[in-house]
Design goal:
This protein has 332 residues and is an alpha+beta fold. The chain has eleven helices and twelve strands.
């Protein structure tokens, strides 16, 4: 499935999850990015209808409970929505490594160009007078930001284009110019790394994105190199970074019966009338905060202050993101 079609399907799901009423095909076309067309042009409108029918069939094949109906007895044209009661998943119990993989996907979300399109679509729904459920898609936007170099480097790796950037190591305040053929970008211990062939050292190297200074500069033409077959990027980063050490300890209070993944991860669990006290090992406060913030009100951080403040900051960022677009205002 192409990236364009994937984005259109995700936008369609967000749109249909965010309304309590049935939306007609015309309303969907005017709201969801990817369905733009001239309804007065017969051929253009027929192309939209074929595209929309394919997308509906695709969603149903994926198990999305797409409902058909009308908003009132006076409507002649059928509309569509997604049934929340059938779409919602039961509680999913994730192992720590599985939860980490979900967190990585969430961090990438805003860099796929989807969050902005989704926000724009919801604003159009409000402007059209359609009732929007503000809680329906809270879990579909990330609350974590990634390094500015992530987008340019993933694009360069996909296009097989060499890049240049200034890089600062922990032992040196001054940055040095580096040239790299990027094979891919991976997340390790809550940090982003790019792995590739260093053109100056003539060897495989990995670089932490947060240490890149300034902009990533593309050089040369696309398709200039091919990564080694079967290369394991994570193994390169792991061997470069050394073994995982989690010297920190965080104490959290968890609601009864919630956060099963954290319970399996905990070094200590102590039942209490208000919930369960868990002691969690961690290496990086920011990385742990991203995990804990994802549990919402089910988890409260008690200690240490650095983790507690990091979680509070993540939650404030989440609130700020949902307050960016006032109801009824359509972005220019």
């Amino acid at each position: 499935m192409s990236r364009t079609r994937t984005e259109r399907l995700v936008n369609l799901v967000i749109c249909l999850l965010s309304t309590r009423r049935f939306l007609t095909a015309a309303q969907i076309a005017a709201t969801v990015p990817g369905y733009e067309h001239d309804p007065d042009d017969v051929r253009d409108h027929e192309a939209f209808q074929r595209k929309f029918e394919r997308d509906k069939a695709e969603l149903r094949e994926l198990g999305v409970p797409l409902e058909t109906g009308t908003a009132s007895a006076f409507d002649s044209e059928p509309g569509y929505r997604i049934a929340h009661r059938e779409y919602a998943l039961p509680e999913i119990l994730l192992e720590p490594d599985e939860a980490a993989a979900v967190g990585i996907a969430a961090r990438l979300w805003q860099h796929a160009g989807l969050a902005a399109a989704a926000s724009s679509g919801l604003a159009k729904l409000r402007a059209a007078g359609i009732d929007v459920d503000p809680q329906a898609t809270l879990g579909l936007e990330p609350v974590v930001t990634a390094d500015p170099a992530l987008g340019p480097l993933t694009t360069a790796a996909r296009e097989r284009r060499a890049v240049g950037f200034d890089y600062r190591t922990p032992d040196d305040d001054a940055s040095t110019a580096r040239r790299l053929q990027p094979w891919g970008v991976v997340c390790w211990r809550g940090r982003w790394y790019v792995v590739g062939h260093d053109l100056d050292r003539e060897a495989t190297r990995c670089f932490r994105l947060s240490r890149i200074v300034g902009k990533v500069r593309g050089s040369g033409s696309p398709g200039a190199f091919e990564p080694p077959a079967g290369v394991d990027l994570i193994s390169h980063v792991a061997s470069w970074s050394g073994p995982i050490e989690r010297p920190g300890r965080a104490t959290v209070l968890v609601r009864p019966g919630r956060a099963a993944g954290l319970r399996r991860w905990a070094r200590e669990v102590a039942p209490d009338a208000a919930g369960d006290w868990l002691v969690l090992p961690y290496a990086d406060a920011e990385s742990l905060a991203g995990t804990l913030a994802g549990y919402g009100p089910d988890v409260r951080v008690l200690d240490p202050p650095e983790v507690r403040e990091a979680v509070i900051q993540r939650l404030k960022e989440a609130v700020a993101r949902h307050d960016e677009i006032p109801a009824g205002q359509v972005p220019a």
